[in-house]
Amino acid sequence: MSDEEHQFESKADAGASKTYPQQAGTIRKNGYIVIKGRPCKVVEVSTSKTGKHGHAKCHFVAIDIFTSKKLEDIVPSSHNCDVPHVNRTDYQLIDISEDGFVSLLTDNGNTKDDLRLPTDEALLTQIKDGFAEGKDLVVSVMSAMGEEQICALKDIGPK
């Protein structure tokens, strides 16, 4: 071979990819898809017949899982779409700080202090009222593509 030394610089992170490819024709309602760089939940899929140029098209209507904005995309059914890795984790709520951040208890006993209260008014009042009443609350945190947000609340009884 050669005597030269090769240096490779990698700018990518070593973690798992934020998305994976999936054929557009196999994505169904209630599945996930990336539209305009945002992770979305599919609420409607319609497929057109093959046209003059030979590709059936899938028309996706989806809701951004973090901002609740409606997004649409049309993709040939044989092409690949990006699908986000979406995880949902439950944490016990320990504290709410004045600046809008929450302190959560993880499964291994550590605390997670980098999440803000949700922007959804109904969920926000439920969390604040339940915490003020001294209830044991468990919040569900949805994470996808490097973003995390509280998306649901469970009351597991008084302390």
UniProtKB/TrEMBL annotation:
eIF-5A seems to be the only eukaryotic protein to have a hypusine residue which is a post-translational modification of a lysine by the addition of a butylamino group. One of its GO terms (biological process) is positive regulation of translational elongation. Residues 1-21 are annotated as: Disordered. Residues 1-12 have a biased composition (Basic and acidic residues). It comes from the Eukaryota. Keywords: Hypusine, Initiation factor, Protein biosynthesis. Gene3D superfamilies: 2.30.30.30, Nucleic acid-binding proteins. Residues 85-154 form the Translation initiation factor 5A C-terminal domain. Pfam families: eIF-5a (PF01287), IF5A-like_N (PF21485). One of its GO terms (molecular function) is ribosome binding. Belongs to the eIF-5A family. Translation factor that promotes translation elongation and termination, particularly upon ribosome stalling at specific amino acid sequence contexts. Binds between the exit (E) and peptidyl (P) site of the ribosome and promotes rescue of stalled ribosome: specifically required for efficient translation of polyproline-containing peptides as well as other motifs that stall the ribosome. Acts as a ribosome quality control (RQC) cofactor by joining the RQC complex to facilitate peptidyl transfer during CAT tailing step. Translation factor that promotes translation elongation and termination, particularly upon ribosome stalling at specific amino acid sequence contexts. Binds between the exit (E) and peptidyl (P) site of the ribosome and promotes rescue of stalled ribosome: specifically required for efficient translation of polyproline-containing peptides as well as other motifs that stall the ribosome. Acts as ribosome quality control (RQC) cofactor by joining the RQC complex to facilitate peptidyl transfer during CAT tailing step. PANTHER family: TRANSLATION INITIATION FACTOR 5A FAMILY MEMBER. This is Eukaryotic translation initiation factor 5A. The lineage of its organism: Eukaryota, Viridiplantae, Streptophyta, Embryophyta, Tracheophyta. The gene is EIF5A2.
